[in-house]
Amino acid sequence: MKTALLLIAHGSRQEEANADLLHVVAGLRARGQAIVEASFLELAEPSIEQGGCCCVAQGGERVILLPYFLSAGVHVRRDLTEARAKL
User: Fold this and answer.
1) What is the C-alpha to C-alpha distance for residues 55 and 62, in angstroms, rounded to an integer?
2) What is the pTM (predicted TM-score) of this model?
């Protein structure tokens, strides 16, 4: 089973604020052991759904949602649980 990692950050309208996640994704991709994609809960693209579709389009048969948040606030507990159920 081919595994994909979908990293999920909050997202910002400021590109430099999103760059941290993109840097982490690039580092994980360089290891070449899994499909790795970035996604954002809001304010930036790709969305969680777009990122999940990209993982599947690359052959991902199992997509692991990996929150990239500093604390388990409402977005992690409620919104990401809803996103997982939808996917």
Assistant:
1) 9
2) 0.81
